[in-house]
Amino acid sequence: MSITTDNGRNILKSIEELNLENAHISCFAPNINIGINHSLDIPVLKRAIARLKKLQNAFAMSWKMKRDLHKAQELLRMEIKTLPSACPT
Predict the structure, then answer these.
(1) Is the CB of residue 18 less than 8 Å from the CB of residue 41?
(2) Are 31 and 7 in contact (CB under 8 A)?
(3) N or C of the chain: less Cβ packing under 10 Å?
């Protein structure tokens, strides 16, 4: 038998009280999420993300920039794409 959890303290405490520590398997998704969130605190990445958000915001607020991006993509015979909106999730 195994128990897969998100590493919540209450769940880990329950597993410990039931003497099932050897049956515990940590779920990968919450662990990778924690790692990614910690990496977003690295100053170089914070600055890069802030610049990208600023650039995306400029395109979101300016119809002229959107038009020029569209024209440049057509000129270069690229697939027409738009910038996605910034979303923390």
Answers:
(1) no
(2) yes
(3) C
Helices (H), 1-89: 9-17, 28-39, 43-61, 63-75
Distance, CA of 59 to CA of 83 (rounded, Å): 8
Give whole-number Cα distances, 20 to 10, 28, 43, 72, 73, in Å. Answer: 14, 19, 40, 61, 58
**Amino acid (one-letter) located at 75:** L
Q: Give the Cα separation of 6 and 26 in Å (integer).
A: 6
Give me the amino acid identity at 41: D
